[in-house]
Amino acid sequence: MSAADPITTSVEHREGVALVGIGGEIDLSTAPAFEAVIAEALEEDPRVLVIDLSEVTFIGSVGLRILAGTQEKVGKSIPIAVVADHAAASRPMQLTGLDNLISLYPTVDEALTALGQAACD
Q1: What is the CATH number of the domain that holds 99?
Q2: How far apart are the C-alpha atoms of 6 and 64, rounded to whole Å?
Q3: Which residue among 2, 57, 61, 102 is least enclosed by CB atoms within 10 Å?
Q4: Is residue 21 part of a domain?
Q5: Residue 28 is part of which domain span?
Q6: pLDDT of res. 115
């Protein structure tokens, strides 16, 4: 990641789980890349979507809107979890109440364990 490329994205699919990784800043200039990587992850109709924000250094309101919009789009058909182990990503979600709609976890493993059990219920 450089000043010219303030965001990194990745998608990994494993056993019905789409794992989206984001690094850097999520703001107006990087929102299209954030939205695109989520759309890419959903193309394969995963059972579960995990969005890993542990490498995010800033998330603006546009990033929160994308998360809320993704939750609205998939409804209850695909459980979503956000991994945020530090205040830069978790605090904005908590302050806006978004953590009441989308579950927050400190690690990817904890999110996968919790969602794996939820998907089996």
Answers
A1: 3.30.750.24
A2: 18
A3: 2
A4: yes
A5: 7-120
A6: 84
Least confident of 49-53, 70-74, 88-92, 113-117: 113-117
**Phi and psi torsions of 9, nearest 5°:** -140, 155
| 52: helix, strand or coil | strand
Count up the domains in the chain and report the number. Answer: 1
d(CA 26, CA 53): 10
Contact 81, 103 (CB under 8 A): yes
Q: Return the structure tokens found at 51.
A: 């969005």
Q: How does the average pLDDT of the chain come out, rounded?
A: 91
Q: In angstroms, rounded to a whole number, what is the distance separating the alpha carbons of residues 93 and 63?
A: 10
pLDDT digits (tens, 9 = 90+) for 60-96: 999 999 999 999 999 889 999 999 999 999 999 999 9
Q: How far is CA 119 from the centre of its chain?
A: 18
Residue 69 lies in a domain: yes
